[in-house]
Design brief:
This is Leucine-rich repeat-containing N-terminal plant-type domain-containing protein. By secondary structure, the chain is mainly beta. It has 2 helices and 75 strands.
Length: about 1050
């Protein structure tokens, strides 16, 4: 009995405890419900009237003790924050609130769940930091809290999860470094922290997690190199390091990861050569190395027949060479080698890769032709080889590719025709052959391409008409046939292309009027049929209310602009220029509130600019030039705050230029030339600080050039020519340093001087100031305008010399002024002419120069006189010497010698003879009697014979008649008389029998080079040579030449070289 009572009491206690615990859980869950927003009613059955173990998302234990083991409300559409009451569910092992719209922080109270094994909070909008306390969940095996707005650093306390198998922190805003102690997570299988802001180096300690199978660190800011320790992760199957800042080479150790299936190292800064080989990584299926700086060739060891590689992406690198090694990758399904430097031919055996689905080889240097065997790749869906150097024809075998959906061969050098077989590619959706040299007609069978969405054939040499069958390509959305030689009318069948949104046929020779049925194409957003020969009215192209761009320029459309154009409310660009349109500009254009480009130039439009256009507040370009528009320029144009170009030139506008235009702060080009505008140029134009071009020429503007224009600092073209502008050229124009194309102020009434500040316009190419009233000289500063290719200063009042830097310009650039200097006549300063007075500094400089030069000349003359005096002294000393030197050496002279400079000699004790500048080759030209006997010497053909020669005794030997000019003298020793004789041709005639004898004591000088006799010795010095002798010399009929010079001191006789003189 007692034992039964005890048992009953124990059971009652246990039931009470259980009842109390169950009641507490129920209360906590109901509080959790109250803090969540449940738009789908998932928590409707959470009620105190029922057992909480039956509530949605609740799983309890099945034993006698009732415990809540799992709370799973994933994907229930819940909103609000996670209630902190969840931390009271102590028995909870799994908490899954993922894929909801929960906000707020992760509650710290979650750390109170000691039995928690799995925590799933991913795909919400949770914010704040990951609580450090989460490290207390030591039994946690799965932690997935990614795809939230969590920030801050990754807590290193996560390394406490010794049993952790899955760590998902991807797609948050986490920053800082990845904790190195994550290497302690020995049981980790999946680690993904992709799409965060983590930085620093990848911890090499991750190489210690032998159980790791998935490693995803993509799209962070990791730097440094790839740890070679990753080669130790033998279980690893998936590695994604895409989108970081990793550098260095690819570690060859990665080839040791034998189980690897996917390796993505793309979008980093890796360099060097590819080290990955499927000879070791036999299970590798995806190799993605795109967007790095890898280089080199593709080596043979990349693949073999046992390779499992299905996807190879090497785009955006610096790989080069051929791609022949690819042929061994027989399992390939997708090949992307685009944007490299591969060259050579596409392998002819490319059909060995029979599994290929996608071939992307664009932006390389492939040449040769497209191999025809590519038509055997029956699984091919994408073939993109654009922007290479492919030549030859398009293989007709491509028509066998029934699965091909995309064919991009544009920007190559392919020629020939478009093969008809290509239209057998029934799955083709995108065909782009733009920018080749294709010719011939378009295939009539184009209509067979029922799935065609895009057809780009621009910039070829295609001719003929547009085939009517194109109208049967019912899915066609883009038709671009521009820049060809197509002709004929538009086929009416094009109106069947109900899905067409772009029609681009520009720059052909298409003609006739636009079919009215084209107006049925209601989805058209772009029509560009410019530069053709279309005629008629433009109404058929206005049928689509979806139009955003309409370009009909350079055709022959006529008639008025229909008012219905105002119904194209989506139109942003309207270009109708260079046609034959007439009438007024319809005011309905003002309904086009989104219009930003309006171009109606070169038509026959008349009337005024409609005020309704002021409603088009987004206008950036208004181009109405070369029409017959009249009236005044509307002031409301100043309200178009986005206006960047206004061109109203070559019309009949009159009146003044509205100052309101100065409010168009974005205006870059203002052209009003060739109108009838008058008044002054408003100073408000100086507010147009973005202005590049200002053209106001050929109007009737008057007044002065406003100095405020200097604020238009970006202007590079300024033309105010052919107006009636007066005043001077503002100095401030020199501040427009970006002026480059032209500065044209010609044909006005400008006066004053050319501002020197224009020399600052160093970029200027054309300067025109002609036909004004400018005066003064050309400023020297203009010489700095080294970029000038055209200059015109003609027809002004300018004067002075033309700077030397302008001499290459034609003379017409300076005519009508008072210029001199190249290219005009040279400058000549005359006494009566105007002279430019020199400054005091210039005068002083000239005087100083003259004094300096005079001093130099005086010093030079003194030097010459001193040298002459020294020579005279040496001669005097020689005459006083009493020694005799006689040496003979008969084999040094012969009858062929010549002697220049001879004279008449007396054998008296002193006689001087000189003769200069003259040479006789036949014999001695002068002779006379010795011992003072008189003789006469005549010079045939000469009217002024020389003077006489006097002997020792003074008896004269003369040349008759007396000379009219001074000759060279001969005198006696006592100096009684001197004389001279003929010194010019023709030479005197001398009897052959005459003799001249040199005796002792005779001194004869030949042009400063003397013959000296020193008391019995004769010293002959001719041209610096010396001869010493003592015997009488018979000079006739002897010819002497080449008297040798002593290399020693001529004043020392013992150094003289003696030369014998013999008849």
């Amino acid at each position: 009995m007692g034992s039964n009572v005890l048992m009953f009491s124990l059971l009652s206690t246990i039931l009470a405890i259980l009842c109390c615990d169950g009641s507490k859980n129920s209360i906590l869950l109901l509080r959790t419900k109250s803090e969540l927003i449940d738009p789908r009613g998932v928590l409707t059955n959470w009620s105190s009237d029922s057992d909480f173990c039956s509530w949605n998302g609740i799983r309890c234990s099945v034993n006698q003790q009732v415990h809540i083991l799992s709370l799973n409300l994933s994907g229930s559409g819940l909103r609000g924050s996670i209630p902190s009451e969840i931390g009271g569910l102590f028995s909870l092992e799994t908490l899954d609130l993922s894929s909801n719209s929960l906000t707020g922080h992760i509650p710290r109270e979650i750390a109170n769940l000691p039995n928690l094994r799995e925590l799933h909070l991913y795909s919400n909008s949770l914010s704040g930091v990951i609580p450090v306390e989460i490290g207390l969940l030591v039994h946690l095996r799965v932690l997935r809290i990614g795809d939230n707005k969590l920030s801050g650093e990754v807590p290193s306390s996560i390394s406490n999860f010794s049993q952790l198998e899955v760590l998902g922190l991807a797609s948050c805003q986490l920053s800082g470094v990845l904790p190195w102690n994550f290497g302690a997570l020995k049981n980790l299988v999946i680690l993904t922290v992709a799409d965060n802001r983590l930085e620093g180096e990848i911890p090499s300690e991750l190489g210690n997690i032998q159980s790791l199978k998935t490693l995803n660190l993509a799209n962070n800011q990791f730097n440094g190199s790839i740890p070679s320790e990753f080669g130790n992760l033998s279980s690893l199957r998936y590695v994604n390091l895409h989108g970081n800042r990793l550098t260095g080479t690819i570690p060859s150790e990665l080839n040791q990861i034998s189980q690897l299936l996917v390796l993505d190292l793309s979008r980093n800064s890796l360099s060097g050569k590819n080290a990955i080989s499927t000879l070791q990584l036999k299970k590798l299926e995806y190799l993605v190395l795109s967007n790095n700086f890898l280089e080199g060739e593709i080596y043979k060891d990349l693949c073999n027949e046992e390779s499992s590689l299905k996807n190879l992406f090497l785009s955006e690198n610096n790989f080069s060479g051929s791609i022949d090694a690819i042929i061994d990758c027989v399992s390939l399904q997708s090949l992307d080698l685009s944007n490299n430097r591969f060259s050579g031919a596409i392998p002819s055996k490319i059909d060995n890769l029979s599994n290929l689905v996608n071939i992307i080889l664009n932006n390389n240097n492939f040449g040769s032709s497209l191999p025809s065997r590519i038509g055997n790749l029956t699984n091919l869906e994408t073939l993109s080889i654009f922007h290479n150097g492919l030549a030859g024809n398009i293989p007709a075998e491509l028509g066998k590719l029934q699965r091909l959906t995309l064919l991009y061969l544009y920007e190559n050098q392919m020629s020939g025709t478009i093969p008809d077989g290509l239209t057998n590619c029934s799955s083709l959706e995108n065909l782009d052959l733009y920018g080749n040299h294709l010719s011939g007609h378009l295939p009539d069978s184009f209509g067979k391409l029922q799935n065609l969405v895009l057809l780009h054939l621009r910039q070829n040499d295609l001719s003929g008409s547009i085939p009517t069958s194109l109208g049967y390509c019912k899915k066609l959305q883009i038709l671009a046939l521009g820049d060809n030689k197509l002709s004929g009318p538009l086929p009416t069948t094009l109106s069947l292309l109900s899905e067409l949104n772009m029609l681009s046929l520009y720059n052909n020779s298409l003609q006739e009027s636009i079919p009215n049925t084209i107006s049925l194409l209601k989805n058209l957003t772009i029509i560009n049929i410019s530069h053709n020969k279309f005629t008629g009215n433009i109404i058929p192209v206005l049928g689509s209310g979806s139009l955003t761009l309409l370009d009909l320029t350079n055709n022959s459309f006529s008639g008025a602009i229909p008012p219905g154009i105002g119904e194209l409310r989506n139109l942003t660009r309207l270009r109708l220029g260079h046609n034959l349109l007439a009438g007024e500009i319809p005011g309905e254009l003002g309904e086009l509130k989104g219009l930003n480009f309006l171009e109606l130039s070169s038509n026959k439009l008349s009337g005024e600019v409609p005020v309704e256009l002021s409603n088009c507040e987004k206008l950036t370009h208004v181009i109405l030039r070369q029409n017959m528009l009249s009236g005044t320029i509307p002031s409301w144009l100043g309200n178009l705050s986005s206006l960047g170009e206004l061109d109203l030139s070559s019309n009949y506008f009159h009146g003044s230029l509205p100052k309101e235009l100065g409010q168009c702060s974005c205006l870059m080009r203002l052209s009003l030339r060739d109108n009838n505008l008058s008044g002054s140029i408003p100073a408000e134009l100086g507010k147009l600080t973005s202005l590049n071009v200002l053209s106001l020429q050929k109007n009737n503007f008057s007044g002065t050039i406003p100095s405020s224009i200097c604020h238009c600092s970006k202007i590079f073209e300024l033309s105010l020519a052919e107006n009636s502008i007066t005043g001077s050229i503002p100095q401030e124009l020199g501040q427009l340093t970006e002026l480059q194309v032209i500065l044209d102020l010609s044909k006005n009434s400008l006066s004053g001087r050319i501002p020197s500040s224009l020399g600052k316009l160093v970029k200027l190419e054309r300067l025109k100031l002609s036909s004004n009233q400018l005066h003064g000289e050309i400023p020297l500063s203009l010489g700095k305008l080294t970029s000038l290719i055209q200059l015109n200063l003609s027809n002004n009042l300018l004067q002075g010399s033309i700077p030397s830097g302008f001499s290459n310009f034609p003379a017409s650039s300076f005519l009508g002024n008072k210029f001199c200097g190249a290219p005009l006549d040279p400058c000549i300063r005359e006494g009566g002419g105007d002279r430019k007075s020199l400054s005091n500094a210039a005068v002083a400089a000239i005087i100083a120069s003259i004094a300096f030069i005079s001093a130099v000349v005086c010093i030079a003359l003194l030097n010459i006189m001193m040298r002459l005096w020294c020579n005279w002294r040496s001669v005097s000393v020689s005459n006083s010497d009493k020694e005799n030197y006689v040496e003979k050496e008969s084999d040094r002279w012969d009858s062929g010698d010549k002697l220049s400079g001879f004279g008449m000699l007396s054998n008296s004790s002193a006689c001087i003879l000189e003769s200069c500048g003259w040479r006789e080759e036949l014999g001695c030209p002068w002779l006379g009697q010795t011992r003072g006997e008189a003789s006469t010497l005549s010079c045939p053909g000469r009217k002024e014979p020389g003077r006489g020669i006097i002997s020792k005794e003074g008896m004269g030997m003369s040349l008759m008649p007396p000379p009219a000019s001074e000759g060279l003298g001969v005198g006696s020793r006592d100096g009684s008389q001197t004389g001279s004789f003929c010194d010019n041709n023709p030479r005197p005639v001398v009897p052959k029998a005459s003799r001249v004898i040199i005796d002792s004591g005779l001194r004869v000088r030949f042009c400063g080079r003397g013959i000296y006799s020193h008391h019995g010795g004769t010293h002959i010095d001719s041209l610096g040579s010396n001869v010493i002798g003592g015997s009488i010399i018979d000079l006739l009929p002897l010819k002497l030449v080449g008297l040798q010079r002593d290399l020693g001191d001529p004043e020392k006789n013992n150094k003289f070289k003696t030369i014998p003189i013999r008849p």
